[in-house]
Design a protein that fits this description.
single chain; 231 residues; alpha/beta; Glutaredoxin; 2 domains; seven-stranded mixed β-sheet; 7 helices; elongated
Length: 231
């Protein structure tokens, strides 16, 4: 009888524990939930990071970043000799053309001053410039037609490799006037040119008589030469 009562009390205690949930388990659950919430809200402080709410700042500022960038050497034109008299101005009709010295395709130095007393066409061009390609045969025709006037044409190629410029100028087109290499477009910048082609007509005194921006026809060239030679 005693054993039956003990067994019955044990079953009731087990049922109460199962149905009413063990208080220890409940307490442990609340404790874990509280810890999780605390980590979400104060995780940085609890783990020792960013104390006193001091914002994290990257020590590397913009200047320091720029200082770390590798600076590649800039190619300098050793063949351009631009006068120091206001070299940054944009030349206009009536101005004296700036003297310069550049290398031709054979490596020979050529200066604008070499042609003093002669009419000169100074043409800025490049092989990638489609209008330049259209214009080149017109310049050749004018050059051939005005040899009695001792016309000189200096065609300044804009910052292209020698083989590229030479192949087009001599092999593809067969031009016979003087081509020069304007490394880094130094002379074009000094003259104040913008856009290709750009052409300056210079009389025997070194004065600019005409500035033409864009491609020219033979008729236009002849009209400009009439002004240049007569002056």
């Amino acid at each position: 009888m005693t054993d039956e009562l003990a067994s019955q009390e044990s079953e009731e205690t087990t049922a109460e524990t199962t149905n009413g949930r063990n208080p220890i388990i409940i307490f442990a659950g609340f404790l874990l939930l509280g810890l999780a919430l605390a980590l979400l809200l104060f995780g940085g402080d609890l783990l020792g990071g960013n104390r006193d709410n001091v914002p994290v700042v990257n020590d590397t500022d913009e200047t320091a970043v720029l200082d770390q960038v590798v600076e590649f050497p800039t190619a300098e034109s050793s063949v351009a000799e631009i006068p120091a008299s206001n070299p940054s101005s944009i030349l206009e009709v009536g101005d004296k053309a700036l003297n310069f010295t550049l290398l031709d395709f054979d490596g020979n130095p050529v200066s604008l001053a070499d042609f003093e007393g002669r009419p000169v066409i100074v043409n800025f061009w490049a092989t990638w410039c489609a209008p330049c390609r259209i214009e080149m045969p017109e310049l050749q025709a004018a050059y051939d037609a005005y040899q009695d006037e001792d016309l000189a044409i200096l065609a300044l190629n804009q910052d292209e490799p020698l083989d590229v410029a030479r192949t087009y100028f001599e092999d593809e087109i067969g031009l016979t006037f003087t081509a020069l290499l304007d490394d880094n477009s130094a002379i074009a910048t000094a003259f104040g040119t913008f856009g290709l082609p750009t052409t300056y007509f210079v009389d025997g005194e070194g004065t600019i008589t005409v500035i033409h921006r864009g491609p020219m026809t033979l008729n236009q060239i002849e009209g400009y030469l009439a002004e240049t030679i007569s002056s």
